[in-house]
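Priority: low. Protein: TRAP transporter small permease protein. Input follows.
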Amino acid sequence: MAGLLGLSRFIDRINQFIGRQVSWLVLAAVLVSAYNAIVRFLGSGLPAYLPIPRASNALLELQWYLYGTVFMLASAYTLLRNEHIRIDIVSGKLSKRVRDWIDLFCHIFFLLPFVLLLVYLSWPWFLRSFRSGEMSTNAGGLIIWPAKFMVVAGFVLLTAQALSEIVKRLAVIRGIIDEPNPQHELPPTVEAAIEIEEGQTRD
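Result:
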């Protein structure tokens, strides 16, 4: 188990680094979007001698690429931080141990097969685009394969993080490590209320 936990920590460090770095691409996307909107608004009012890029499909597609890259590469970081969407109205009524077992089951039987399937399907999809030098069908558009590679990379990182979460959840259930995600904990008063209710149910 110690070796698996070491691998888990390694995966966590990689996804934490990538997640924090790609967050800056949101700012880049906003700046590109704002620039494109301003230039389109000014249109022919811009002096012809100004050596600045005019609004174009390339800038519009760059904006999409940046947003898409953030979404794909930060997905694993979101899972690491335990900030993915949960149905709190249901999970909030369960004890932590029950939620740990639910997480373990869902990671093994739902998340992991799903991301492995998407890695399997997206790799040839990217490879065909790369080998053909696929370009956007829009006039002046960008080359497409880098965006498709981000899809593959995102699901590879998410697969690795799913494995890391499975290892950590097993270790938490077995009492080997403490809860690594504070977000996974319920407030003490809620946890105590659940334990009292479970005790009354058993009685």
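Residues 76 and 111 are 12 Å apart (CA to CA). The mean pLDDT is 84.
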